[in-house]
Amino acid sequence: MSRTKKTRRITDIMPARKADKPFEQQKASPSKSRKPSRYELDLQAREEKKKRKHKGLPSGSRANEGLEQKKAVAKEVKDPRIGSRKKVPLMVEFVNQPEKGKTIKPVILEVEKPRLSPELELEQLENNECLNQLLDDLEAGKTLSAEDQKFVDECLDRVHELMTELGIEDEEDDSEALLRQFETMDINKFR
């Protein structure tokens, strides 16, 4: 005959004991103000002791921390501006097929020219061979194309701007103007 180990587990057959019921603190009603019994005080003391005993972190806290962080990372809202749903072709499928209406416009890079001092810029414009040749053609009475005329006008305007900026006046060979200037000049200024 085999022996069976005795257990203290409560089964359906056995009646529930007072000690097996969890302690519930009764709400004090104004009509009933009785003292708790020794049995209730013991249960209350056991519950408090259990609470005091488990002061630290719950078991497995190191393993659970990683899971909580992973869940938090998954909940982050992605910025809708980052990334695009539009598919980008990795290879150029055509190269300027005008008969099909497909052309790729060339990219024009604007390189900023270094700014020259007004004296250097004026000197370069005065020594520009192309501009001098076009001005000689104009003096000879030849007509220029629209592009050449536009180029000459722009260069002459720029020369005029630079001269006014530097305070240079056009030289005039008018002797009468020089004589008038001499007569109106106050000599006492130069003493």
Task: Write up what this structure looks like.
The chain is mostly helical and 191 residues long. It has a domain at 118-190. Helices cover 43% and strands 0% of the residues. The chain contains 6 helices and no strands. The protein has helices spanning 38-53, 61-75, 118-126, 129-140, 146-166, 175-184. The radius of gyration is 52 Å and the shape is elongated. The termini are far apart. The model has no long low-confidence stretch (mean pLDDT 77).
Q: Beta-strand level of the residues, as a percent range?
A: under 5%
Overall 3D form: elongated
Q: Give a quick account of the main beta sheet: strands, pairing sense, barrel closure.
A: none
Strands, total number? 0
The overall pLDDT average reads 77
Low-confidence stretches: none
